[in-house]
Amino acid sequence: MSIISWNCREIRGASTVRRLKTLCRKFSPDILFLKETKCKKEKMKYWNKAGYFEYSFIVDPEGSKGGIGLWCKANIQIDILSASKHWIHAHVTLSNQQQFLFTGVYGPSVLTDRNILWDFLNSIRPGNSPWIVLGDFNQIINSKEKLSKNKDIRGGSLLVDSINYLGLIDLPTFGNWFTWTNGRQGDDLVWERIDKTFSNVKWLHLFPETWVEVLPIAASDHSPLVIHVNRAQQKKPYSFKIEMMWLQHPQFQDIIRSNWSRTNSGSRALHVNSKLNVITKEIALWNKHEFGNISTQIQEIEASLQAIQAQIHLPQNQMMEVHYRKRLEFLLNCEEIMWAQRAQQMWLVKGDRNTRYFHTLVNHRRNKATIKIGFRTPFSLKKQLKRIPILNEDQIQHLTKPFTKFEIETALFQMKGSKAPGPDGMPPIFFQQFWDTVGDDITGMEVLTHMRFPVHWRKLIMECISTSTLRIRINGDYSGWFHPTAGLRQGDPLSPYLFVLCTNVLSSYLVQAEQLKHIQGPKLGRHVLPLNHLMYADDLLIFFKANQETCANVDLLLSIFGQASGLFMNKDKSEIKFSPNASANQKNHLLSIINCKGTDSLGKYLGAFIDGPKPDRQNAELIIDHLQQKLSGWKASLLSQAARLTLIQAILSAIPLYTLHFTSLTDKYAKKCNSLMKNFFWGNGDAGKKIPLIAWRKICRPKAEGGLGLRSIQGLNHAILGKQLYRIMTSKYGLMGTIMRAKYVDPYPNGNLTCRPYDSTLWKKLFKYKHLGTDHLKWRVGDGSSIHLYDRYWVPPDYHTHPFTHVSQLMSGGFWDSAKLRRVYNPRKIQLISQMNTSYTNQKDILVWGNSSSGKYELKDAYPISMTPQNDRPFRNCEWQAIWKLNLPYKIILFWWKTLHKGLPLRYNLKRRGFNIEDTCLFVCDESETESHVFKDWPFAKLVWFESKLMIRTENINQNSIIDWITHWVQNQDPLHFNIRNSLIPEAIVICWSIYTQRNQVLFQDGNRDHNEVLHRVSHIMNNTRHAFQLATMDPFFALDRSYHHLIPSPSGNKTHSSEVTIYCSWKKDVSRQTKSVILFTNHNSHIYPLVMLVVHLKNNILSSVAQCLQRWLLMPHDPQLKAAIRIPNRTLISQLQQRSLAPQTYSIVIDDIFLINSPHKNFTFTFIP
């Protein structure tokens, strides 16, 4: 079946008639929908007589405007449900009795009149019927659907709201993207995508291969749309790839380990490749017998399980029932993972299955999949050594170091396991999961132990370029191998590094041209060097004076670089913007020299607007467009609320992050962004919008404070802009920090920030949030020489009759001098300062951000203080973290969270939200339908509680409600009640959920008021929950949630060489003396020899104390030939000693000292010991 939709712009024209006849002959459409016919029905009967169609329905035009018509063939039955000058809504029955709803749309040209169309579409209730909506909507959604100098988009949000409200999906299109043009030229030219085709999920289930062909514009200013419903496709050949669900099966590990242990001859690379080929064949055979068609297996086991449960009274069936039920649970879990992998969204929500969502997304993605192949002209890299920067000795030494197993391993485990499988079908998770088996072979292939720079390094790079081979996968089948003429393909991991090496030459050219006064950039401040250029990958901004000589020099320099590298400037895409002082004649003359076009606005750079009128507003609209585009592909009705929450946290919240770094959102746009996320969280379904019964500001609280941990866009924007200001104040070498500090920060010692009326717009944005950075800065003491005693970020002195001016004068030999401290500070401040670690290697003092443990400005720590304090508090003083840690399905925990916030749609809550209804209980009760009534005082609830395993009489509960009673037990931390609390709380919450579920079934689904059904549901949930956490111990086959841990080893490994001394670290507490003791010792022939001991106060941080003990021992004199492996029973400290950036600010200076003391010879290694 096929459908043609076309705005023909008057059907009586000769060219229009010829085009329409050609379309009918070529595509033989079963249904034809025409808009703007401008012809009455009496003159439209020609198309029936011509033999193309048997049935027609015509809506006459109003004068010479409008007119729409619908035609169909004889084997199709159409029943018109509604019609107007803007739509035809019909029920269609095909010859095979397949039925669906059809809505043809002709949108009003006037913006305000389109509300009539949106209201009609929103009123349609398709129910379970497939539905297709197509036509000329006369409305674009976002900036991608418009090509014009005028970027104004009005009314798009209303169409987006209707699409999301109705759960419609934009069907994949091929051919032209834009479907309408005004036919003008130059700056007046406009192209837009206003002809669209949407469908609901049921349509895709009925016609999963639907796609839309957009034909060229001719004989009208609109493109004809051909909707192809059935597409004949060749069966795609099978290509092997790792299925994530296989990792759930314990036999999979045995197959990998047994086949990898085989020995092969040849090179290391051939050795690894042969093993992968063997494993691929073995896994494919195993999958065929063990899994096969997983959907068929699920159906078979469900049928068997149903038969067994029907005869469950037989003893032999009881054991079989457990086995079949667990097998079914295993296969269901595998099916969900399989569809999630195909949808390329590897988040799985515990306790909530979204298989229908994944299935729909995969079908939609498959229809959109297409490959376009193009070839680029090869470039040659000419040798030109002049002016190219060279490596220094330290860089050469770093490059010649061999790659270690630790480096390869670290890089591997930083990859996302489900991404980018190679041609062998093995994604990163395969190597991560079986690293203990395959690691030695892989690293043995990559470690370059004999490479010396520069000869071998150049040779290695050239081999990568000259010996690379590629093959292309088209519709599931691989082409043959071929050699690319341009060396590396785009996307190759080596490609960006080589590109940076090339563009670094251009950067050096520009810097030297600035030094020689050939190209002079503007000075942005009195004490700032001129700004010559900004470069990011292949995007380049050059700043220079608008005169003939400079323009000629720029053109010459770019030409020289192009000849040397083959990377020439694309002058069709390059633009020049002049300052307002340049005259029109001067602009034209300079443009002719460089041969580029001029512009008044640079528009977008790196995906955001950087100049022009109101760039903040343009960027805000850009953020909203991106959010709407992402939401248009997600259908809330297919996802549970827990899944929607995961999508908001993982994806939606991350979309605006980049743009918010230089954009200050107004309240209007921030509320719009929050509104989009809020509406998606509460969900839209066929029955209409859900009612948000909990305020968004409460949802955006941290989980520990009763929220869901989402972030409000306003607070996030403020925190990000505050981070930008913090970087300016603390970054010594960054270009932006250097310029901004010279312009806007007073010289030392004041260091005040200033903001004047004529300062830049960006600085004014950042200055508004200076309190987020400046109010929380403090000094990390190094040698104390940079810290003035009266510095605003240091502890203010109490006494002033002393000769000291800097903190370094309060130290002696790297220690705080108590006598000097007493001359400056009171006892309380002396105790505070004495706990600060100091440097023994004369490191510099640095400013750190005091609100985070790392000393760095972190968004997660800045966001809470950026939010405007809210006076309202959660309804209950509850241990929220304890609730989130309950071993219950996520949907039930989310139900309880809503209950605690009075967020259930009970009649009392609805009336409180402004609904004009009575709040009395619907079950012949005179009381208000509150949470307390439904879960405690309702007679049906009383019966459920008494008949449950808890056997509770609700009238004997001392608290006012069941909710208060459960909250009391959650907050009860008495160890004697631990078991009672852990068993009572989950079951009580599940009982409440089951009561509420039964109440909804009685009211809305004609259910029975059966307390046994409630208790059976409770038992089912509790048994499944217990099994989910006990399956791994019951049978390895059912270890569905096996956690995978990888412990990054020390770069030197855990084994010590025979020439090394092994030193052990240990510590103990002495509560009676209120002390901790840290000791380093050696163990020789079962005798312990202490090396150093440090005794500190009991409240001191143990990791800080261990680091101080190591620091003291390393500062002692040692034999230069001494090599020692120091073993510490703490993985966190080992990680910090190996990567010092991980150390918290409280003792990071000590870690830095240890690193610097050990760095010259690296005689001491740090390893973990259990």
TrEMBL record:
GO terms for molecular function: catalytic activity. Residues 857-945 form the Reverse transcriptase zinc-binding domain. Residues 445-578 form the Reverse transcriptase domain. Residues 4-222 form the Endonuclease/exonuclease/phosphatase domain. It comes from the Eukaryota. InterPro entries: DNA/RNA_pol_sf, Endo/exonu/phosph_ase_sf, Endo/exonuclease/phosphatase, RT_dom, RVT-Znf. This is Putative ribonuclease H protein At1g65750 family. It comes from Senna tora.
